[in-house]
């Protein structure tokens, strides 16, 4: 469709030789654990400062081609008022977004999980795109020690396929 050229360009940027993807899509709770380890409270101000420290590192764009952001981060700015999306773009780093809503138990399985977040995904992706995200991450887990059961494999495949169809 109308986004085909942009999709190819995004993929080429993210997969550019010698650079990798920075995953800073940890939830507020997980980010809070990092902050607690250095004696800081889990507040939006402290999470923003931590992310600003990472994203404004001199020379980051030499080594990083894409950055997967948490939803909160996508809408945050530096203390100078520059959006994190613009900070990334200025370093030729493609902004991305984590779009799944976490793992929950999969009923009828062997203590396995499935990933939620397909509900409302199309509208969230449209908003994230307007904000500057150009790729998305969806995770799913297939448990080897507990399975994988046929149900878990089928749910993972279906979930990933629906995510890909919506996000692209």
From TrEMBL:
Pathway: Carbohydrate degradation; glycolysis; D-glyceraldehyde 3-phosphate and glycerone phosphate from D-glucose: step 4/4. GO terms for molecular function: fructose-bisphosphate aldolase activity. One of its GO terms (biological process) is glycolytic process. Gene3D superfamilies: Aldolase class I. It catalyses: beta-D-fructose 1,6-bisphosphate = D-glyceraldehyde 3-phosphate + dihydroxyacetone phosphate. InterPro entries: Aldolase_TIM (IPR013785), FBA_I (IPR000741). It comes from the Eukaryota. Pfam families: Glycolytic. It is an enzyme of class 4 (lyase). Keywords: Glycolysis, Lyase. Belongs to the class I fructose-bisphosphate aldolase family. This is fructose-bisphosphate aldolase. It comes from Aegilops tauschii subsp. strangulata.
